[in-house]
Amino acid sequence: MSRAHTLRIGSHPMNLSLFILRQRRHLEALAEARGWAVHWLDYAEGRDSGRLLQQDQVDWVGTGSTPPLYSRAAGVDLVYVGASASRQTSSALLVLADSPLQRIDQLRGSRIASTVGSYTDHFLAQALHSHHLDYQAVEVLDLPGREGQHALQAGRVQAWAALDPLLSEQLQTGQVRALGQAGDFIPNRSLFWANRSWVEREPQQARLVFQALAENDRWIAGHIEQAAELLAGSHPQQVAASTWAASLRQRPWGIEPARQPILDEQDQQARLLFSAGLLNNALPPSLGRDLSLSTELS
Question: What is the pTM of this model?
């Protein structure tokens, strides 16, 4: 089928809304009724999303709040098209249960495992800033997933910015404790963003993807056990269905258009990341506002 009749969507394991949508094939059912095909590109990490957009391999992606900022700074011509609600949980700064560290302001000089390039950059930068520490006061190591867990257990790092489902799994063991949750410091939400030229050229396709995502999130909210079983059987993070269910129940499910408050959050985050030295150049405050499709997708 021609490019004009194909929806090209990126999916990676850390964006559960898209990952579950991809497994359920709900988008395919809606697209086929309109004579469109769906092409999914599976990739391992959300921080690769901007590169895939820039290389014209996909038209729609979903990540945490940081990758679109790095992508904009790198020149990716993107538009925000949706957002989840803010989550209190799903990421936390963990230390071993017997660690002498009791507060975030004691982290100066510590080594922290993280998924560099993900929204944990924002989480750590804001958490440190809130405790009067510069980002450079700690050493952040790029050790995603189990690598971070094993580094903490082996004593190679003093803290780990853990993500679900491993966060829920490890907290259940009693061997770790949290110094702080991401939701204590940042509006921890998923953002959905797309190739701007594709959205301008194919607005009906963009609306259909948004519709499918919103319907899929409502399905997850009403079918936690089924969604957990689906993830236990297909997700590369090998954790039990019961752990997935506990993680899913903690999340507020639902997708909304990326309205002005979301874009303002992005501008505020961009200023923080620039001041922390994580963005090489400042982003104009108006850049994100000009890209919102909120009125068209409502």
Answer: 0.89
